[in-house]
Amino acid sequence: MFDFFRAVPEAVVCDNLKAAVTKARRYAPDINPSYQELAEHYGIGIFPARSRKPRDKSIAEGGVPFLVG
Asked: Which of 41, 50, 44 is nearest to 21 (CA)?
């Protein structure tokens, strides 16, 4: 995606999924090593959304059903 848009964001807020976060902690979650290498390569920050906090997810995520359907 970064190559396609030829740009990278300063930070990525991901869901608290197992593929990205190996241990969910409130202040210092453990990030999957491969995901961390990706972040270091592109110089971005990874910030997992807190579990059970739907407000942490993007507002744009709510518009996806309208685009797909």
From this structure: 50
